[in-house]
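Troubleshooting log. The previous structure file for this entry was overwritten by mistake, so regenerating from the original sequence record. Sequence copied from the archived sheet and checked twice against the printout by T.R.
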Amino acid sequence: MEEKKNDCGCTIGGTPKHYNSGISCDAKNCVYHDCDCYCTAEKINVGPRNATCSSETVCATFKERK
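Regenerated output below.
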């Protein structure tokens, strides 16, 4: 049976391998975005170390959805 996907590429009715309910994510073009507002990555890395405010940080786990 072939899995159906919605317009952002996520499986409809599927269950992600890991669901970080405490992490809000708006990066809809990331492979770990669950098409709602959560991250499904096993773990995330945020940096760089020398950031002094939130606008200087980035999610290093981001991978573009193709």
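The longest strand covers residues 20-24. Archived copy saved in two places this time.
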